[in-house]
Amino acid sequence: MKKPIIGISLGDPAGIGPEIVAKTFYEKEIYDICNPFLVGDEKIVKQAIEITDVNLKIHVVEKIEDSKFAYGTIDMLDLNNIEMEKFKFGQVNAMCGQAAFEYIKKVVELAMKKKVDAIATTPINKESLRAAKVPYIGHTEILGDLAGIEDPLTMFEVRNLRVFFLSRHMSLRDACDVVTYDRVLDYIQRCSEAMKRLGVKGTLAVAGLNPHSGEHGLFGREEVEQITPAIEEAKKQGYDVVGPIGADSVFSQALHGKYAAVLSLYHDQGHIATKTLDFERTISITNSMPFLRTSVDHGTAFDIAGKNIASAVSMIEAVKLAAKYAPYFTREI
Q1: pLDDT tens digits for 104-128?
Q2: So what's the pLDDT on residue 154?
Q3: How far is the C-alpha of 146 from the C-alpha of 54, rounded, in Å?
Q4: How far apart are CA 226 and CA 240, in angstroms?
Q5: For the chain, give me the number of helices (H) and strands (E)?
Q6: Confidence (pLDDT) at 173
Q7: Which residues, by range, are in coiled-coil regions (predicted)?
Q8: Is 267 in a helix, a strand, or coil?
Q9: Among 120, 150, 257, which residue's Cα sits nearest to residue 201?
Q10: CA distances from 247 to 193, 208, 282 (A)
Q11: Which of 60, 198, 259, 282 is least surrounded by CB atoms within 10 angstroms?
């Protein structure tokens, strides 16, 4: 099977992105399963190679087709958008925010043109984006707009556990309010289709919102009035879904193979389950777009940037996961 090309964006240059990218390209196993390709700034990458003390060369190309894809060499597009005299690690910087946005934009362009088979992204900083007047709060919003998708679907994967999220960044009070029949049904449908696009077979389990899924209304009415009716309707439509299942057990059951994935009903419910299991190897997959995207699930870590102490485990796992699913991923939405 032809090895997939994985497009990697450098992330915010002032954070740990360049360091973990250098360490990822130095991981021999990456080249055994894919052809990694970087979009960034050559000067920053050279600096990262020096900081991490890895034996890598840089091969700047105008077209991906000119890449060597040989271990020991970083094939990359150089956007040349950092002025080193204005650069400093660990600081909010409009120049770096703009640069990070441009790396994402270019790697998405490559994915939309099918020049890369999937993309893996490194951390960006929300404050730096804001300083650069980039009109997005984060990766998901940027990717959704560039791809023309209103509500991209997020899935976490760690070991054998896959978790989708009914809502992302909102207060817990608001998150409870959006657990409605229509939204739960819509997400069951979308998550099921997302699993098919990745080649994942099996049952989707819906987590309960309240303790013990509400105990038939004793601890809350959401399961009785909203969640269970949505699940029953989805079953009638032919979807392989069960629930609601108590959140204190459903994630463990999925980890051990009883379910192919879990629909978490709010942000922290699923984040706690996955990150407690293995923080570094919890990888984010953005689905429901014309391309596959994986990402580390940590930030820019400004406090340790440039010190060669950042772990590249999450970035390596993100590239591995992109390579794992790329051959099965169908671009049709």
Answers
A1: 999 999 999 999 999 999 998 888 8
A2: 86
A3: 34
A4: 18
A5: 13, 12
A6: 87
A7: none
A8: helix
A9: 257
A10: 23, 6, 18
A11: 60
Over the stretch 263-283, which tens digit does the pLDDT of each residue have? 999 888 989 999 999 888 888
Q: DSSP 3-state assignment of 186?
A: helix
Domains in the chain, ordered, with CATH? 1-152+286-333 (3.40.718.10), 160-277 (3.40.718.10)
Cis peptide leading into residue 244 (ω within 30°): yes
Sequence-distant (≥ 6) Cβ neighbours of residue 288 within 8 angstroms: 149, 151, 152, 153, 190, 193, 194, 333
H or E stretch covering 191: helix 181-197
Asked if 22 and 53 count as a contact pair (C-beta separation under 8 A), the reply is no
pLDDT at 333 over 60: no
The terminus-to-terminus CA distance of the chain in angstroms comes to 24
Share of the chain above pLDDT 70, in %: 98
From CA 222, how far away is CA 195, in angstroms rounded?
26
Instruction: Find the radius of gyration of the CA atoms of the chain.
Output: 20
| Phi, psi at 105, each rounded to 5° | -60, -45
